[in-house]
Amino acid sequence: QVQLLESGGGLVQPGGSLRLACTAPGRSFSSYAMGWWRQLPGKEREFVALIAWFWSQSSPYYADSVKGRFTISRDSANNTMYLQMNSLKPEDTAIYYCVAGARITAANMYTAGAYDRWGQGTQVTVSS
After folding, report:
1. Where are the alpha helices (DSSP H) in 18-69?
2. Higher pLDDT residue, 52 or 99?
3. pLDDT score, position 106
C-alpha cells in the first residue's frame, strides 16, 4: 500500500512560483503512474498532470489550463515526484493532491476514480 505525502504548498503572488513535492515513504514509484489533481473552491477535483515512465509514450501529460506553466517530474533516487508551478494565477488557487494508480491508461487517466491512492492534499493560494 502506497501512502503519499505532499509538501510545498503556500501563499504566492500572481506570477510567482511554487514547487510541490510528493513522497511515498518506504515505497517505490516504479510500478505506478503518478500525478497531480486539484480541487478549486466549490468545484470538483480536476486533473492537473501525470507522469508514467513505463508507458511507451512516456512524455508527461498536462491539463490545458496548466500546459506551459507547470512541469511534473520525478527523482527516482529520492523516490520523490515534483510539480513545478510557474506563472501562477489566482485561478490556480486550490488544494493539490498527489495521486498514484497501478492501472492507469490513456483512457482512464482523467477519471479520479481510476487512482488507487491520494495524498492528504496541500493548499496553494495565489493572491496579491
Report:
1. none
2. 99
3. 84
Report how far residue 99's alpha carbon sits from residue 119's, in angstroms, rounded to the nearest whole number. 6
Name the grid cell of 115: 487512482
CA dihedral 95, 7, 70, 2 (to 10 degrees): -90
The torsion of the CA quartet 22, 109, 85, 125, rounded to 10 degrees, works out to -80
Torsion of CA 60, 40, 19, 82, to 10 degrees: -40
Could you tell me which of 37, 33, 32 has the C-alpha nearest to residue 83? 37
Tens of pLDDT, residues 21-52: 999 877 777 788 899 999 999 999 999 999 98
Distance CA 93, CA 100 (A): 22
